[in-house]
Write a structure and sequence with these properties.
The chain has five helices and 14 strands. It is an alpha/beta fold. A seven-stranded mixed β-sheet has the order 2-3-1-4-7-6-5. Strands 9-10-11-8-12-14-13 form a seven-stranded mixed β-sheet, covered by helices on one side. The radius of gyration is 17 Å and the shape is globular.
């Protein structure tokens, strides 16, 4: 079984306040942290616990459109998925780091906070689909352990009355099998096939699914499977907010959010 956890998903949006209102009202969750450090990149953000995982959204600050996030919004034609951030064990991290180098994948950044955790973000031109990040973090033996991007006490904001986790990230791409194989090579995890015949990579607590392009917006992170503890309530909330788009489907921030 994989020792990699899907710990955080990052979205990018034009209007951060609107996305916060929709996510909180539909899923009964709340913001746990806003990182002032992203301001140096011309962004502001929010992080929201979904069970023991975090859903982040970043947005260009007013007047700050020449940022990586702002350019991504232009390329993708609007709000959507941005990053898949995975936690690996401290002792295994050097091996993953060496593997990335051996595969010739360039780093975009190597964020870290000393003894709390260190990570590497991989260049999307070398590994398409989304910006993949691998990192280790202190307190790794706890499923609800510390996660330095989410502040000192993210657990206080965890609500699981409606949803309690992210079970899959869905990446749409012209060649799902080829991209799944490439991601699997980086993660040292074999590409498999899910029950619907899609190439996928199984992680410890979730999966990454690769599907054909379905919305005309090109390659990118396009959906999430959200585990619901009260699906009828989530769907009713989404109906009221104008976000329900299918039998078990909610669309927020340009993302297909499937209740499972």
């Amino acid at each position: 079984m994989s020792d990699i956890r899907m710990r955080q998903i990052c979205l990018v949006a034009h209007d951060l306040d609107r996305i916060q209102t929709q996510i909180e009202s539909v899923f009964g969750v709340e913001v746990c942290f806003r990182d002032p450090g992203v301001g140096r990149h011309g962004l502001h953000n929010m992080l929201i616990p979904f069970g023991n995982q975090l859903l982040e959204t970043v947005s260009p600050k007013p007047g700050e459109h020449e940022t990586a996030g702002g350019r991504y919004l232009q390329r993708r034609g609007g709000d959507g998925g941005y990053m898949v951030i995975m936690q690996v064990p401290h002792d295994a991290y050097p091996g993953y780091r060496a593997r990335v180098d051996a595969l010739g994948i360039r780093p975009v950044a190597e964020p870290g906070e000393g003894e709390k955790g260190v990570g590497i973000q991989l260049h999307p031109k070398d590994l398409p689909g989304a910006i993949q990040e691998l990192r280790w973090n202190e307190d790794e033996d706890r499923v609800d352990g510390a996660w330095w991007p989410a502040g000192e006490d993210w657990q206080r904001a965890k609500h699981t009355e409606i949803v309690d986790g992210i079970r899959a990230a869905e990446i749409q791409t012209p060649d799902p099998a080829a991209l799944a194989a490439r991601w699997g090579e980086v993660l040292d995890e074999p590409a498999q096939t899910d029950a619907e015949g899609n190439p996928c990579i199984a992680l410890a607590d979730a999966g990454v699914r690769f599907v054909p392009i379905r919305d005309g917006r090109g390659e990118g992170l396009a959906g999430l499977d959200i585990h619901a503890t009260d699906a009828p309530r989530a769907l009713a909330n989404a109906e009221a907010a104008g976000c329900r788009t299918g039998e078990n489907l909610i669309t927020i921030c340009g993302m297909r959010l499937r209740l499972v």
